[in-house]
Amino acid sequence: MGKPPANIAEAAEPHFDQLVRLLKLGSFVNGPMKDGVCDPSGISQIELKVMMALAGEGDLAGHDLVEIMGLPAMNISRALATLNEKGWIENATDPDNRRRRPVRLTKAGETEYERLHPAVASVAEALLGGLSPAQQRQFAALSEKIIAAMTQWIREHHQGVRV
Fold first, then answer.
1. How far is the C-alpha of 113 from the C-alpha of 55, rounded, in Å?
2. What are the tens digits of pLDDT across the range 87-119?
3. Would you call 89 helix, strand, or coil by DSSP?
4. Torsion sign over Cα 80, 98, 53, 16
């Protein structure tokens, strides 16, 4: 058995190092997504991420998107305005909270999201295609656990956010 850690920082290093790797993944994936999806499609990365969030999670309000994405409200607001101008999102209602202002993809937004799918799939293949099927399953399982922990963090630290 190995020597016990000398201090708390040393004991936490594996988690710290894993978090740094996760942050790197989050940062580095932006380049291929920009080059392979956003630039050719004329859509910003934030607009794409908003569309992906709405496609995956359903109706979300601007403040939900701010908390989920960890981006400034102004950036989300601009993306929502642009998507609205393009006719890709529309206002929705929340029967449980009349003050909440969610949005959702329109039929045109769903069509555009589907049109982007081959470009996103191409980037996915380029980045993840080198993993074996077992590694892909393992990555998916680990990702789900991490996403669940992140979702729990958001719920605990940001009251009223829908994720």
1. 8
2. 999 999 888 887 889 999 999 999 999 999 999
3. strand
4. positive
Instruction: For residue 76, give the 3-state DSSP assignment.
Output: helix
Angle at the Cα of 163 from the Cα atoms of 144 and 115, rounded to 5 degrees: 75
104 φ, ψ (degrees, to nearest 5): -145, 165
Closest C-alpha among 35, 37, 65 to residue 50:
65
- 74-88 tens-digit pLDDT: 999 999 999 999 999
User: Residue holding tokens 């380049």?
Assistant: 31
Interatomic CA distance for residues 12 and 16, integer angstroms: 6
List domains and CATH numbers for the chain: 32-130 (1.10.10.10)
Q: Give the rounded distance of the alpha carbon of 10 from its chain centre.
A: 31
Helix (H, G, I), strand (E, B) or coil at 163: coil
Residue carrying structure tokens 């020597």: 3
User: Which two three-digit tokens encode residue 59?
Assistant: 């109706």
Residue 102 token pair: 């969610």
Nearest in space to 151 (alpha carbons), one of 163, 161, 160, 143: 163
pTM, full prediction: 0.82
Place of tokens 């594996």: 14
